[in-house]
Amino acid sequence: MTRQRAVILEVLRSDKRHHTAEEIFELAKKHLPTISRATVYNNLHALEKECFIRRISGDGGPDRYDNAFIPHGHLLCTRCGGVFDIDVPNFDGWIKESLGTDAESYELKIRAKCPACRVQD
Ligand SMILES: [Zn+2]
Ligand SMILES: [Zn+2]
Prior knowledge:
- This protein has two domains: 3-66, Winged helix-like DNA-binding domain superfamily/Winged helix DNA-binding domain (Arc Repressor Mutant, subunit A, Orthogonal Bundle); 73-120, Dna Ligase, domain 1 (2-Layer Sandwich), CATH 3.30.1490.190.
- 41% of the residues lie in helices and 16% in strands.
- The chain is built from five helices and five strands; from the N terminus they run H-H-H-E-E-E-E-H-E-H.
- It has helices spanning 3-13, 21-31, 37-49, 91-99, 115-120, and strands at 54-56, 64-66, 73-77, 83-86, 109-112.
- The chain has a three-stranded mixed β-sheet with strand order 4-3-5, with no helix packed on it. A two-stranded antiparallel sheet has the order 1-2.
- Strand 3 (73-77) and strand 4 (83-86) form a beta hairpin.
- The chain starts with a helix and ends with a helix.
- Bound molecules: zinc ion (2 copies).
- Residues 18, 66, 68, 72, 74, 85 line the site of one zinc ion.
- One zinc ion is lined by residues 77, 79-80, 82, 113-114, 116-117.
């Protein structure tokens, strides 16, 4: 693994907010000042293809990246635009019971205010 890729993965793992490619580039630069935007974007595409990370299509905004590849739900904050993991207890069990098979993938997005934004209102 290249040093650039290791830094990009480290950035992805260090935050629960699900960064955009641009945010990942800014954070990676703090560790590797010489890293280029193209390197970051190319590595993100490669990591997604190799199933290390998952891309979440943004709600009108830029796509975001998730370091967990296992399917899980997301809260899309309608105020700050952040994307956060949510745990829906036994959602996988419910799918299996309803469909009679496991889901190969799913996208669960719930739009609401995140806890930090709720405090500010
Ligand atoms: Zn928020
Ligand atoms: Zn996630």
